[in-house]
Amino acid sequence: MEGEISGILAAIFAQLFMAIGFVVWDKTWNASGGSAFALNLYKCNLASIGFLIAAFIFGFTTIADKNEIESSPYIESVGYLILSGFIGIIVGDLAWLEALRQIGAARVLIIDTLKPFSAALFGWLLLDESIHKVAFSGIAFTVVGILIVGLENERGGGDSELIADDEEVQSPSRDENYSDESDDQKQILSNSSQDDKNGDENEDQKQNLSNATKEDTNTSTALKTKSIWDKRRGYALAIGNIFLDTWGSVLTKQHGSQFTTWSINLVRFGSAGLFMIVVSSLMRIYERLRVARNQQENGNITPWYRLPKLNWNGWLKISVGVLFVTFCCPALSNYALFKIALALALTLGSITPMYALFLEWMFYGASKKPTLRAIGGASLAIV
């Protein structure tokens, strides 16, 4: 019983640390122009250093007897943890971060409310875990509360920095072009009525204006189509991340019981970080070859495999965010994973929006003040 309580508390505080990290990260990374891959690369390798130090201090394994360690499938378990890191961190986190960019945090968090039910299914099928009716009801209440908070953030514009509605993407350029085109058309028609001798020239101008209008219409249609496909892609990535994250958690729980939370995270984040270093290095070599062949791309755009250029203050904010999001949160989350059922652990792992609701109010003031409906949703989730 004490283990379950400590697991629940660890899962709850893990999400508090994640919310704090997100608030610290807010705008800094987006403004830098860095990609999801670059953020994943940085946070995995920086956090791995912390996990290595913690593992040396607190131990790498939970098994005290050396003979028992030698007889256990140690290497096999490490291999499965590396696979867990590849699935949940490299593929899953990249999908999650890209989904954030495509459809915004509010929509991603709403889709994440499906994760507890996915965890309950995986736990039942692969871990032989069962959820009591009372616990399942609690999970359902939490999911509904999170859903209310997420929907309220989207309605209230709390996520306006990250969410761009279709109309906002399409309307400004199209309206401005239309206004400019109307003025040009009036001027052309006025000149035509004043000077009939220039009729041929005016006809050419009208034809050019018509062609320009068609080009603008085609451009607007292309932007609209791209926006729709980007959103569909974002939703697909967010849904895919649910199953990837759950599968990674299942593998961790199946094969990580003999390790401490520090060594589990060291293997998962360390292997993921090394893999991304290799990918980044190979892409840099390819970039050098392209430069040698005079095929250098736009220097103003940071390639997806490179870290963006930030000042010391910017990197400090990102690093503090890594401390909360990628070090403290996984350490507590993995501890909770072995103390409570998978479905409950991932349910409590979805309550970040409730913390963010009040943290943003504290940091940004009245502009981020939560509505009564959002507070009601948060209360329902806590109950």
Structural class: mainly alpha
- Which residue ranges are poorly predicted, with pLDDT under 50 across at least 5 consecutive positions? 157-179
Order of helices and strands: HHHHHHHHHHHHHHH
Helical percent range? over 70%
Number of helices: 15
Major β-sheet annotation: none
Distance between the termini: 20 Å
Shape annotation: globular
Mean pLDDT, to the nearest integer, reads 75
Rounded to the nearest angstrom, the radius of gyration is 26 Å
Strand content: under 5%
Total strand count, please?
A: 0
SSE blueprint and pairings:
Elements lengths: L1 H24 L2 H5 L3 H23 L7 H6 L2 H30 L1 H8 L2 H12 L6 H24 L9 H29 L4 H57 L5 H32 L19 H26 L4 H7 L3 H13 L7 H11 L1
Description of the molecule:
There is one protein chain. With 383 residues, the chain is mainly alpha-helical. Helices cover 80% and strands 0% of the residues. It has 15 helices and no strands. It has helices at residues 2-25, 28-32, 36-58, 66-71, 74-103, 105-112, 115-126, 133-156, 166-194, 199-255, 261-292, 312-337, 342-348, 352-364, 372-382. The chain is globular, with a radius of gyration of 26 Å. Residues 157-179 have low confidence and may be disordered.
Features:
383 residues; mainly alpha; 0% strand
Outline of the structure:
It is built from 15 helices and no strands. The protein has 383 residues and is mainly alpha-helical. It is globular and about 80 Å long.
